[in-house]
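dumping this here before i forget
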Amino acid sequence: MSVTLRLTIFLAIILASLVSSAPTASPTSIAKDEYIIETIGSDPASVINEIFLAVLNDDDGDSPRRRLQATALRGSKKIIVDSYMPRPSASVSGDDHPLNSSGRSLTASSQEFIGLIRVEDDGDLQYLRNSSKVLNIIKNDEIRLSESTSSWNLDRIDQAFGMDGQFLPSAELGRSVDIYVVDTGIHRTHSEFRNLTTGVSRVLDGASFVSGETLGASDCNSHGTHVASIAAGNTFGIARESLLVPVKIMDCAGRGNVWNVLQAVTWMLDSVRNRTKEGRLAVINLSLETSANVVIDRAVRELVIAVGFYGRVAFNG
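structure:
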């Protein structure tokens, strides 16, 4: 017997198994000497300045995402700080922090930063790693769409066990919920995302961290649109009353990089915090793959905490 699927707000950080065919396009360019640096006590530019006693030129030190073009010289060797920002944090402190089990405070801190740097010399790179003010340095690896050959059927998820040949979703499934699709964007005008009563698109502006774009509500690859339709499409979707928030981190070829992900996490932390104040709940989906690294792990943990702390959480596994 079928039971109505209730959508209590849940956070799903899903490394989804989704298949998509991408058009041919030039992949996002990543310099072989690009790295992500995490610093403590001061921003990356100041830390590098202190380490190498260099003179830095801060072009826009007062902007929320402090961006900087600077050169730190150690002899004839060069380090470029392309960009930096405060480390993504859910702003949850003390014992309230669910992941604070290591004995180390995981509280939000304006004294921890992440930055995108270019290091030409391996000796300089090792010198940075040895500094007590540098928490981590990782390669700015490429991210790619994840793919698989299997998927769940709607008939399977509207009852606890087995299948009964039908899908009976609640008429309010997804109402008051924002689904953040971290992917290649979403095709806003697609008929799958129109409100069936008003005809207005349920896709919001979102954000893009792909060079040359500012909004996520377009998709030249189609994978993000495909993912969004599984989550909330009118025909095959589940949460058909939800709003979709496109967060574009990959280009037409389905390629991006770790820095794109970190910027997206920072943006989503602010968005989730603000929209939950308006009574909205949040689901976040990432369909991507890249090399394992501690910087993304920490950023995603903060995202989990933000959705759990500012809304109600139920984990689907």
